[in-house]
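Protocol step 6 of 9: fold each sequence in the batch and record its structure tokens directly after the sequence line. For illustration, a two-sequence batch is reproduced in full.

Sequence one:
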Amino acid sequence: MVTNSFDFVVRHGYTLVFFWILAEQAALPVPSAPLLLAAVFATWIARELIQRRRFVKKLAITRDRDVVLCCSCPNEVSKARHAVRNAVPLLVLLGLFLALPACTSTVKVRSVRSEDTYRWVQRAMPASDEPSAGTLELLRLHGLGRVWRAHPWAALQGIEDAHETGLTARFAAVELTLLAARRAADEKTGGRLDLYLATAARSWDYLFDRRPGDPEPGFDQDYGSAVMIYADAVARVVETLANAHGARKATTAITVRGPAGPFELTFGRGDWRFDQLKTLLAVDRFAVEGLPDRFIRYGLGAPFAGLAGQDPSAPASAFYPPKGLGIPVTALLRFAAAPADRSATRRADVELLDPGTRESVEIAGEAIPVAADFTAAYGHLAAIGEREIREIGSKGMFSPSATGSFHRMILMEPYDADKTPLVFVHGLWSDPSIWLPLTNRIEGDPELQRTYQVWYFIYPSGEPFLWTAAMFRDAIDEVRHRLDPLGRDAAMRSMVLVGHSMGGVLVKTTVAASGDTLWNTIFTVPPAGLAVPAPQLTALENALFFTPKPYVRRVIFLATAQRGCRMAKSLMGRIASALIKLPKPFSDMLRSIARNQPDAVAPAMRSLLRRGGADAVRVLRPDNPVMRAFAAIPIAPGVPYHTILGDRGKGGDEDASDGVVSYRSGHLDGAASETIVPCGHHDAACPAAMNEVLRILREDVASRREGAMPHRPLPAQLSRDKDTRAPAP
């Protein structure tokens, strides 16, 4: 049987080998030699089985484990047994041939996704605990392919002992030092700070100590990875310094020692000091939720989210949010040249930069962009302060007196005399948190960020809007007086105001002249004819008399009820009005006037004053006399104003409404632009509405660049100018 088998191979194998050689010479696609031999033996086995195939009726296994084939031809049983037994050596030989590819260096190519290839080539250590392909290859060449996993520092020493100084070896040192720092941190063996310092130093050298023969940074695939490794190492160093090493109290320098050599860290350079920041969180430590956009600028350094508290040396800190001012910070470690002696101390300057004012830093004579995460700071501040702000908004609606006199301006960034204040005013039953998505987009636009600084005005929205509007104007004047007492800052003379819903009504009082219209709507006598204490009379005058503010350059009305809204008269509006509790001093003053001088009050307003006045919801009714008189007051010429109204995507026409404010109520003749967006009333973060606000702001920036709309001269007296009022009858 074996002889017959090899006879078959000899007879048919020569033919197959002959045609295989011809195809190989002709460069035609042919199978490998082991596969060809395997095909020959497979063909022989198939031939033997076919020749001995008969009509098998039963298969049984006897006690002696011999195979018995019961078939129609008894003589075939012995032949079948003989064929199976003699096929065993050939099957073993076939297995050896099939195993040949595993013993050879066969090269194979398979299809993969391009995304997987780029992910492998461009991966960086911050995203993985495995070095890059170039570093792994270098380790294998020096017999360190397995050492680095358990002892990365020993692997690094092995490369240095081999006197490898090429670019690949220098980058391998960067990756292995970071890996050693991570292992030390995970194992809690100490040395974490000095190893991260060594990682940052090696990254710095790789990035800026370029040697003759090195490729340009833009064409070095490891250059971007080194930037990320530097950022990761700097983030770990700075957060460790801020939390554990007394950097808040350090004013000169501290020394850090370890196996990587001593480092002397100096403080004082940069835009921020450690003691100015209440918290300093690396942005890779948390995720931002609730803000649809994340604005990041790629560059050098480690982005942080800082929280600045009040500082007696900074007057602007009095206007920071209650929890502190959320600011983007970029940490930088600027290393001196590496000493020839590794045991010598190396100096590094710790710098906390403001990426909003510093777009680049100079290193080795080149302008290097500064990395930044502008969204993380706002997200962190919103997360820790949203509850308090929302409570103020809710209490300010139904119980204004519970919030005290909380009418204040909130600065969302450090005051900059070169940036124009962009003031946002929220509406009824709302709070400044509605502006966070829009603020985030403004901070993410480099041109708008360079031009504007964002301010919020927060107030108890349940009070009558004329009363609150006076507080709003006082708040602006207070900030101007505190931050620019001499009136020298040009930015303070060209503010842009944005008001949503009732906030737009407050904004209107800064660009309109009331004359005596509102006073005559409520009273029948001039201010001098009211027998009330002087402080109360002054408060009434401030609320009912106003003139255009010369420092307002442009106004944007967003879903503003210029003529009131019908919902204020609905059942929901009546219930809300009944729940609002006005401040007692305000109500007592109006009741006193209605009781003691009824003839001094207009007949249509007597009943209202006897009840202690009208809350914000009642005043917004379209048939309210005060609302009608206010709607009739025109906006002063010379100040462009824009209206943005919603129609909930139902088609903009004169009957459109955003669910609360109708088009007829929000429309203003003479507007520089009027846009209807498919948004609801309470959706201040609607993309279409935000896009229109950004468009208007860019238009404002362009007009400033072209020199249009020169600043109007400021009067000597920055407070209310009563001399321009029309005389009372």
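Sequence two, same batch, same settings:
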Amino acid sequence: MNIETAIRPDSVAIGAPAYHPAYSSSGHVVQVEACNGFTIGASGMVRDRSQLTIVWGESLQITEVPESAARSWLDLAARYRIEPISAEQAAALLAAAKAKKADAARQMNEAYEQGRIARAAFEADAASKIPAWAKAVIVAELIEDQSDSMTDYYGGKTVRTVILGFSKHTRDLFPELRQAARNFAETAALADAPETAENRQKWSMGGGYFLKVGGRYSNGWKVSKQSFYGNREPVKSLPFPADWHLAAPKAETAPAAAPGVVTPAGIRIEEHTHTKKGFQMFICIMPERVERDEFNRLRELAETLGGWYSKPWGKTPGGFAFKKRDAAETFANPEPSPNDDGPKDGRAPEAAPRAEAPARASVATGDKLRAMADAMQGEIDHKFRDRLTNTPKRQREADSARLDGYWLQRTQQALRALAAHHNAGTVPPELRGVTSKKAAHDLARSEIVRNGGYYDAGYDTGKPATDTPATRALWAMIAGQSEADKQAEALRRKVQALQFANIPGYFPTPRAVIDQMIDLADLPAGEFDMLEPEGGSGAILDVVKDTAPGAKLTTYERHFSLREILTAKGYALAGSDFMEAETAPRFDRVLMNPPFENGQDIDHVRHAFKMLRDGGRLVAVMSPGPFFRQDRKATEFRTWFDDCGGEKYDLPPGSFKQSGTGTATVLVVLVGDELAKEATPVSTAPAGGYRIGTSHFESLEAAGRYYGDPRGSTAADKVAEGEIHIGPPSTCEPDETVTLNREEGRYFIERKS
């Protein structure tokens, strides 16, 4: 072991400067104390005889380290030219740092004490609200999702907590959670949320049992049960801080009051709580036992009304049970026949219920099926909501959700059609037993065709998955997707598939960027001509068509798959390669997202600008490269851009992340003026053509630069007077060739050797 003796304690002076690269901050030594210890360094064990106290910058953070550990910081101070301070200044700096540290500790202690007092007051108030029988508390939490799909982080934070009620048991029962959700206005909608809101995640790293629309990782309210475990006082298990929204206490029933209602038929209706699932139910208790055939008939009638036979259990009597009081009353109050004067022995005549039951059952079943169909709408909307599709896996999940949505839509149509048939008494014999959502859902399943790929969710053929009499009868009631809907779905899948098609330069413009482009373009209210030089899949065109119905759209596209999509959307293409289009000023607006590779965005923007009418506006997405690169092309573009009075707006980082690229982007705005006509000759060449000479220029802009005329007005006058010409000479001798001086933009003659 190599043991070295460190420099003596007086080797570092008080006030010596230091620089910490991790903090990016300078500091000073304010105290040097003798010590006797060792530090393991790069060269082995090092003996330290001094301990340094350093105070850093404006933060006044104090660091106490051995001198050997601080040596690199002291050495860096000279590189950054940090001046030392006097011993008096060092003492004042140390005193200020200690005062700040003491103040921070005091504030922390005060905050802790305030929190302790608030918690004690909360517990004192809660103690009177917790029933003696409570074994768990039902809590609503407002979740703010903080997930980041790009880094695979999934999580959120609770921004508000509300206590909704208490429970006599620790079982997770969703009917109990739904009932408690009604106690608070902001969670009341969860009481009638679709079944998909019932999250069962009792596994390692799962979220437990909770009621929440949108799943675990989404914004919104979450209702769950938290048990009072162990020997802790219940108040210690309550979440803090929390608001209270408990149900109003029920009025106590007088002891002499009857436990239920007795109907004219002698059937008693009593309200009880399901002992296992926790929901309220209404039990129709028969006045006496009935024969087996009569019992079977009554049970069939109860099931038609959505009920069941419940056996006696503890203090709960046996009888025909229903979740809704009106269904129990319909069961217990049979309508007498027209020739019957009423009950004579406390019970309805047997013939009357038998004669009327089918009619009542048919109407009740229709109402039940219609209610089922209406309750499905939230689940259907959830399946069709916008989802991330920036990876193949997420694209498959989104497609699977849409397929489920179409299946649910068919089920909803079937339930409504069955409800109408039940009300009219015209239910096909094959479908008389279909009285539940599950039965209709099974029959509404369609055939899904897949290509065998791992990420292929398949597509819906619109044909039944099975061929049975019941299936054929139910599908005859379903309208199914219209031809227009089928075409729209096929088009959507084509556009979605482009995301991973690897088309060079194709990154669809996100909606947020398009909205900003439209704001900068200031679209006219009436009719106007607009150009989108690179149509792609129609992202910009679609928004403009919806925003400005008066726009007459022109677009180009080279790639066949993209042209196919544009045609399917109804856009007429003016050509395939925009860079080969004639540059005549004929558009009032140009909105574009050109390819960036090899500076193509410069070429496309300058070419499109030539097609802009005077006063027209061009808005383009560009790479920021042309505005800082030092190559000739970028330098010339900046000069031209400034001469045209262009404006540049930086887009936020990640603006195109959803399109599959993290490339930085900017928006540029150009307003058309006489420079837009630079590529159009002002005068017509004579029949014999112009002779070769130095009076021919590549463009009006090049002529302006040559004559020291950035705006090109002098050059334009010379063109009008015939002194100079735009474009190459049209004729030359057989032994002559025309060359272009790129630096000056002028044409010259050369004789062949």
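Proceed to step 7 once all outputs are recorded. Observation for sequence two: The two ends are 83 Å apart (CA to CA).
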